[in-house]
Amino acid sequence: MTPQVSSALARRLGLTRPVVLAPMAGGIGTPALAAAVSEAGGLGSLGAAYLTPGQITEAVADLRARTARPFAVNLFAPGHPAPPTPAQVGAAAAELAPFCAALGLAPPTLPARAAEDFAGQFAAVLEARPAVFSFAFGRLDAGQLAALRARGILSLGTTTGLDEARQLARDGVDAVVVQGGAAGGHRGGWEDAGDELAGTLDLTRRAAAALDVPVIAAGGLMTHADIQAALDAGASLAQCGTAFLRADEAGTSAPYRAALAAGTAPTGLTRSFSGRPARGLVNALSAAVRAPLPYPYQNALTRELRAAGARAGEAGVLSLWAGEGYRLGREGTAADLLDHLWPT
Which terminal CB of the chain, N or C, has fewer other CB atoms within 10 Å? Predict the structure, then answer.
């Protein structure tokens, strides 16, 4: 028999399964997917990093109409990269131009705004009052953490190494998500030198021993045995994203699903699509780009191309985020997939 969920964090959130849905922004992580995971006893997450404040309000309302159980909303902490020079933009656009031409698009240009305003997004989250707010790519300031606490919202910071994990714990977050090197999607830390690309279990053990806050393990957790191993290593919960990419409720596009099901492509880390390192299936665009702009500018520059590729069924220009264990992924409802990950 599967053991009962026993960590203090799981009990605080009323979870019956020790599984957190990774917050997959960009349309993959839908309100329907987050609600389904929460309804089945896990912690659903809404990746809201690319949503406007108004869209966050609407998405949370949609989610709440589907479930009364706790869920998380995730944003990317703001960074302050220097704007790229015209020469840098020109070089990055030139690399993308052949792919745009093949889809009947003009060469890409940068929009006036490369990313949503974090302050407005954060205010919308505070107003929405989800049970949990998770964040990646950086740290929150003391005032932001205090605002979350005042509204009874738990804070989860994301890290890719022990030094960053210690910083987050000192900041006063309620729990730390430690992301191993096998994880799909964006690396969640903020210092390239701090990204250990460590094995998930190794990083979990070290973080659990070093921190006085709960640790959530992430990266390559695709089976019940993987999750049990993460809990045995000291994690309070396990975060899974790739395992839900082919869920019925996910917003994963048809060519993306087909590439995952084929299982023929290796995964690799790339900055080609967004300017930040992220793990996904190696494809034509990730192999061709050599001079990406920093995040969020590259993300903005490739946005129209990626959208056109999804419409055209052209997986070669899509950011096919996936962890190293993606071949173990399954199709089915989110509840079915959660039953596979943690049967009850």
Answer: N
